[in-house]
Design brief:
It is built from seven helices and no strands. By secondary structure, it is mostly helical. 10% of the residues are buried.
């Protein structure tokens, strides 16, 4: 493996898997702490499962980043035949957006995973959420 091929993978871990806010990504001590946690010694399957079940999407974390974190942690859990279902359930349960969580729960367990929804649609949804937050802030300032 050439050094050039490692760089994109390292960037992906840095950007999506560490769970750092954009501002924290610029603080070396925060990055080092997150890297220690991410690459630290294994705590066993039970411990990894506990971490998996406690995952929550960060306030400003994109759907793509949240999806990556859930999938990466699920891979540590050795769920075998139930990995897809449990990953989907934790992804939905940990969503920061209650509206999206309720919508996905209402779709039922046989509905295709949000992971299968094209990136463009997820991106539009995230932009709408940001716009709604901005409108709420503006409304609260006016009131």
């Amino acid at each position: 493996m050439s050094p050039g091929s490692i760089i994109p993978a390292a960037r992906a871990v840095y950007k999506y898997s560490l769970g750092l806010a954009e501002d924290d990504q610029k603080k070396p001590h925060m990055v080092l702490s997150a890297l220690r946690e991410y690459y630290g010694a294994s705590i066993g399957v039970f411990g990894e499962r506990q971490k998996f079940l406690r995952l929550l999407q960060n306030e400003n974390e994109s759907i793509a980043s949240w999806e990556t974190r859930v999938r990466n942690q699920a891979a540590q859990c050795e769920y075998e035949n139930f990995a897809d279902e449990l990953t989907r359930d934790q992804f939905i349960a940990g969503l920061a957006s209650e509206a999206l969580r309720v919508k996905l729960i209402g779709k039922g367990h046989r509905h295709r995973l949000i992971f299968e929804i094209p990136h463009k649609q997820r991106s539009h949804y995230e932009k709408l959420l940001k716009l709604l937050k901005l409108l709420k802030r503006l409304h609260s300032r006016i009131s």
